[in-house]
Design goal:
This protein is α/β, with parallel strands linked by helices and 120 residues long. Helix content is 35%, strand content 28%. It contains four helices and five strands; from the N terminus they run ββαβαβαβα. Strands 1-2-3-4-5 form a five-stranded mixed beta sheet, sandwiched between helices. Helix 1 packs parallel to helix 2 (62-77).
């Protein structure tokens, strides 16, 4: 799969065993959603949560929302959670119009999600 200009995904596993942080930037859509799933590398280790840092995500479509649902299933299947942090208004609108804000754990930023994990 080729590179998509303006799209970036980075994975930080330095917070294990608590969490894997996946930073996405640009546009997450039909063409780029598979890169998000590939970057996650499958389910996180048992008990670890996934945190999607979306503060640089400008757009997402239904494919992106589907990828987030898949990542949530992977995280919760192992006893973790899926957090989506730093969500921009346009992306938050897509999440809310599909009622996924009731399923996804939306937090202000990565430190807020990590603090919540620490309090568990």
């Amino acid at each position: 799969m080729g590179q998509t200009p303006g799209f970036r995904v980075e994975v930080d596993r330095s917070r294990l065993p608590r969490a894997v942080i996946i930073t996405v930037a640009g546009e997450l859509d039909y063409d780029t959603s598979p890169r998000l799933l590939d970057a996650a590398g499958g389910p996180p280790p048992a008990g670890a949560s996934l945190i999607i840092d979306a503060h640089e995500l400008a757009f997402c479509d239904s494919s992106a929302l589907g990828a987030m649902i898949n990542l949530r299933a992977a995280a919760t299947g192992g006893g973790g959670r899926l957090y989506v942090t730093g969500v921009q208004p346009q992306v938050l609108s897509a999440i809310r119009v599909t009622s996924l804000d009731e399923l996804l754990m939306i937090r202000d930023d990565v430190p807020a999600a990590l603090a919540e994990l620490d309090s568990r």
